[in-house]
Design a protein that fits this description.
The structure is a single chain. The protein is mainly α. The chain has 6 helices and no strands. α2 crosses α4. The longest helix is centred in the middle third of the chain and has 22 residues. 11% of the residues are buried.
Length: 118
């Protein structure tokens, strides 16, 4: 997974567990794409301090994922839903009579509705 995407997803899942200061700096760097120098200047801290804080946040967020596996589970559910949608799309009703086609289509529509809610 691309580093920025992974950082964003980990932040989405576990960001509320960071301190306000950590969240603020991390959001600026990862979500708002603000450079380390600019963040340091805005906050009156050193570039090294910002760099260290970002690395510390990465380590904290990775640690939560290692313990809780929420991102891993989310990715798996997303993949499973995609597989279900693809399987549904493959169902063809060519050899069924009209009443069977209606029933199959009704079930497919219900499944698609449930998948869309996920």
């Amino acid at each position: 997974m691309e580093k920025i995407v992974k950082q964003s997803l980990l932040y989405d899942f576990y960001g509320e567990l960071l301190t306000e200061h950590q969240k603020s700096v991390y959001e600026d760097y990862v979500l708002n794409d603000i450079g380390i120098s600019e963040i340091a200047e805005e906050r009156g801290i050193s570039r090294q301090g910002v760099h260290d804080l970002i690395k510390r946040c990465d380590k904290i967020l990775d640690g939560y994922e290692e313990k809780l596996h929420l991102l891993e589970r989310f990715s798996q559910v997303k993949e499973d839903v995609s597989d279900m949608k693809n399987s549904i799309a493959k169902i063809k009703c060519d050899n069924l009579d009209e009443s069977d086609k209606e029933l199959v289509n009704e079930v497919i529509n219900k499944l698609e509705s449930i998948i869309d809610k996920l």
